[in-house]
Amino acid sequence: MDYSVEYRKNKMPMELFRQRYQDKEKFMAYCRECPRYDTVWSCPPLDIDSEVYLSRFAWINVVGAKINLERHVIEEADTADKIKDQGWRIVSEVKLRMEEKLRKLERELPGSIPYPLVDAICAESAAGKQVSHAGCRIR
Asked: How confident is residue 117, by pLDDT bands cut at 50, 70 and 90?
């Protein structure tokens, strides 16, 4: 394998999470610069009110994955295209494994809803076009 992954999970009250970490204007500025903005259903702008959606939950479990690349991967990614291709491959693999962990956590916590990482990958593979929201449990 070309990398290792460290997973971490933390639970906190949703209101505390939003106070500490939710900076909508800063976040949206980054989103608007991304080529996926307004092309993938899971990316902004969204047709849901995030304030209303998040207010339904008292707690949030934040699960993160830190990807540690092997030195040869870094050295071999010597062009913008190689960085993009390798980066997308690795992130997609990690997202798929993360999705499994989130589904397990969802089964352990009835009423919880994981952010659909795999759906975002599937939407991305649709040539950057909006795809059906039929499988989306957020809407």
From this structure: low
